[in-house]
Amino acid sequence: MTTTEIALVPANTVVSAKGDGAAVDVGFASNRVFLVTLSITKIIEQESLDVAIFGSADGATWDPKSLAAFPQKFYTGEAPLLLDLTSNPNVKFVRAHWEVARWGRGTETPMFEFGVTLKEVPADVLKEATAEAKALA
Question: Which pLDDT value is given to residue 1?
Fold first, then answer.
């Protein structure tokens, strides 16, 4: 896998109910650490978005527990998340799962426009960050 960004949820996807992104094969990644970025481009007031990343060995049966999750979101913006699969060697596929909720006045149907990307973190960047973290500890 190169360090190219891969869409777990295509940019500007509009959702009004819970759902799942497509399965993405990460089995050929030379490094099993990824930067996942959530980009929320449109919302309506009084609603929340929960996005989690799930893993699978075969792309068909998904682990019931998420590998990582973004904090609950209420506003537009970008949020990064580090997904480290080094302790999950059986995970060959990942996908995003989202849940939406709305409360208050107005329409009860939530609406979010967002996207989620995945990018492999290069080994040299990880090595440098690990060394820097150890030096600060």
Answer: 42
Give residue 121's identity as a one-letter amino acid code.
V
Full domain range(s) for residue 72:
6-136
Residue 1 domain flag? no
* Tokens 């959702």 sit on residue: 15
Asked if 45 contacts 111 with a C-beta cutoff of 8 angstroms, the reply is no
Q: Domain holding 70: CATH number?
A: 2.60.120
Tally the domains of the chain. Answer: 1
In angstroms, the CA 55 to CA 61 distance is 9
pLDDT in tens, the chain (137 residues): 446 899 999 999 999 999 999 999 998 888 899 999 999 999 988 999 999 999 999 999 999 999 999 999 999 999 999 999 999 999 999 999 999 999 887 778 899 999 999 999 988 887 787 777 778 87
**28 is a domain residue:** yes
Angle at 105 between CA 78 and CA 51, to 5 degrees: 30
Q: If you compute the radius of gyration of the chain from its CA atoms, what whole number of angstroms results? A: 16
